[in-house]
Write a structure and sequence with these properties.
about 120 residues; seven-stranded mixed beta sheet; mainly beta; elongated; four-stranded antiparallel beta sheet
Length: about 120
């Protein structure tokens, strides 16, 4: 399975962006989906996550401003980002927990990452 992220761009402080991430390829079952972000020289941090049942969790730094959602039928995850701040500037990555049957019909679990999409918030 591959993940393709899109929607990054340049926005002013206080503005909004909506990130999208779509899974494609040979898909078994995707359970949890996540958005992470990383600034060069710093650790990647989990921004938001959502289970297949719709349970959401957010980093404290984005609570009340970001909303994660998903379309299970299309294996897509979204991140609506409002009230953006300069400190939100980062590369944003989507990730998915993917379960499938291996060659020996064994259960295989993998975490798949999409390529980053750059979000830049100007002050």
């Amino acid at each position: 399975v591959q993940l393709q992220a899109s929607g990054g761009g340049l926005v002013q402080t206080g503005g909004s962006l909506r990130l999208s991430c779509a899974a494609s390829g040979s898909i078994g079952t995707i359970t949890g989906m996540e958005w992470h972000r990383q600034v060069p020289g710093k650790q990647r941090e989990l921004v938001a996550s959502i289970t297949s049942g719709g349970i959401r969790n957010y980093a404290d730094s984005v609570k009340g401003r970001f909303t994660i959602s998903r379309d299970n039928g299309k294996n897509e995850v979204f991140l609506q980002m409002n009230s953006l701040k300069p400190e939100d500037t980062s590369l944003y990555y989507c990730a998915a927990h993917h379960y499938y049957k291996g060659a020996d019909y064994n259960d295989v679990v993998e975490k798949v990452w999409g390529q980053g999409t750059l979000v830049t918030v100007s002050s």
